[in-house]
Write a structure and sequence with these properties.
Blueprint lengths: L1 E3 L6 H14 L4 E5 L5 H10 L4 E2 L7 H14 L2 E5 L11 H8 L3 E6 L6 H12 L4 E9 L2 H10 L5 E6 L7 E2 L2 E2 L8 H11 E3 L1 H5 L24 E5 L9 H9 L3 E5 L13 E4 L8 H5 L2 H12 L3 E5 L1 H6 E5 L5 E3 L4 E7 L5 E9 L2 E9 L1 E4 L6 E5 L5 E8 L2 E4 L2 E2 L5 H7 L6
Parallel strand pairs: 1-5, 2-3, 2-4, 5-6, 6-7, 11-12, 11-13, 13-14, 14-23, 15-17
Antiparallel strand pairs: 7-10, 8-9, 15-16, 17-20, 18-19, 18-21, 19-24, 21-22, 22-23
């Protein structure tokens, strides 16, 4: 488990550097991301070469987390789990996840503005829970002398790795890192980070490893609720926020997935029974989307044919009548849902939520920097995990459902399947 005292310490950078380092040395590395996140896992996938799944005790539940870890442990030489926020933040926290499976913790500490105090921070992280602290990754160190002061202050805690200040870091946007495809020379950046990583090989080799008993089962019985169905999925820079587990869940339920790009002005595949519009950055591509006539024509025809549409967050934004960007410019959107999306610099909503459907609880999260001025009455609302207060609105218009809520499909296969089936079925 790679964690820290807070966000901004460099967890993703360090995780990516470690993953790329061991991958370069011929090791098979699997990486997980704690919490609800789309962009960091894309960058981590770029670093390790395999899909990065979420690992969260609330979002997935303990049995599903165990199954994913067991599968990864059987496949990989090294399994990394990037934590969320600070080690003890959230309920459940990254520390709870680590302790649930006996996973040792690597504490990433931004040492750019401290030296010996790194020791106090590390001991506090170890003892507060406590957790099994394997060691420290000293990030953004300035010199060998700086590193030596840190090592002397850590007493019995080893510095497993250190990383110098990077002249070129992974760029960020308001939701976190930018998409890997938008970064010129991203592999070169990752390679430089891996080359800059100073690893204590001897200390690394004696980290206690996680063990599973032989009688623990990997079997997950997924009902074939979508057998024979074809689901069209928008996938490009405007519709990029998709949990890999969501795609796997749809396939495991028997669906065939057909991808297309609205930004490239591609039509919805004609053979599709349902349409999935995931989240993303439509606000960054509003002009292109507003002029994508082939995409828009196919979308209206799809709705008029009475086919199923499920849109979440950015997907819903693309279906509104208009979008008002941060510069005050209004862009025409698809117009399938009445109302205007208004972008803002301040975070509008963040946190884990759940949708209590007639088929049970569907878990997920919300994270957006816009508001929706919509005259429609919501069909339903999600519930906030922490307070059980009313969360995001869910709108239903015929066979169309749209919401800011990002659903995690494996949390409820039946409720998920109903999102993509005609309401008369």
């Amino acid at each position: 488990m790679i964690s820290a005292i807070a966000s901004g310490q460099g967890k993703t950078t360090v995780t990516a550097a470690i993953a790329r380092h061991f991958t370069q040395h011929g090791k098979h590395v699997r990486v997980f991301k704690t919490g609800a996140d789309f962009i960091d896992p894309m960058m981590l996938r770029q670093a390790c070469g395999s899909a990065v799944f979420s690992l969260d005790l609330w979002l997935l539940g303990l049995p599903a987390c165990r199954a994913l870890l067991m599968e990864a442990a059987q496949q990989a030489d090294l399994v990394l789990i990037e934590g969320v926020m600070g080690l003890y933040d959230g309920t459940p926290s990254s520390a709870d996840l680590a302790n649930a499976f006996g996973v040792p913790v690597l504490a990433v500490i931004d040492a750019s503005a401290m030296a010996q105090t790194v020791g106090a921070v590390a001991m506090g992280l170890r003892d507060f829970g406590p957790v099994q602290l394997a060691g420290v990754v000293a990030n953004r160190i300035a010199s060998d002398g700086h590193l030596a002061m840190i090592q002397n202050a850590l007493r019995d805690i080893p510095v497993l790795a250190s990383l110098r200040r990077q002249e070129q870091a992974l760029p960020e946007r308001h939701l976190g890192l930018v998409l890997p495809d938008e970064v010129g020379g991203v592999d070169e950046i990752l390679n430089r980070m891996a080359d800059s990583l100073s690893l204590d090989v001897n200390a690394w080799q004696v980290i206690p490893t996680m063990r599973f008993t032989d009688d623990e089962s990997l079997a997950v019985d997924v009902p074939q609720l979508l057998a024979g169905k074809r689901i069209a999925i928008a996938r490009d820079a405007s519709f990029a926020f998709i949990y890999p587990a969501n795609l796997l869940a749809l396939e495991q339920m028997g669906a065939q997935l057909d991808y297309f790009s609205p930004l490239a002005d591609q039509a919805i595949p004609a053979q599709a029974d349902a349409l999935y519009l995931p989240g993303g950055y439509p606000e960054l591509h509003a002009e292109t989307l507003s002029q994508a006539h082939t995409w828009l024509t196919s979308l209206h025809a799809f709705q008029q044919a009475g086919k199923v549409i499920y849109a979440e967050c950015g997907g819903m934004i693309s279906l509104a009548e208009s979008l008002l960007d941060l510069n005050g410019k209004e862009w025409k959107m698809a117009g399938l849902i009445q109302g205007q999306i208004k972008m803002q610099k301040r975070l509008a909503a963040l946190g884990m939520q759940s949708w209590i459907t007639e088929h049970g609880e569907l878990r997920g999260h919300t994270f957006h920097y816009s508001t929706f001025d919509c005259p429609l009455t919501a069909f339903s609302h999600t519930l906030k995990q922490k307070t059980q207060d009313q969360g995001e609105a869910i709108y239903r218009i015929g066979q169309l459902q749209a919401t800011y809520f990002h659903a995690y499909f494996p949390s409820n296969y039946l409720a998920t399947a109903r999102l993509f089936l005609h309401s008369d079925n």
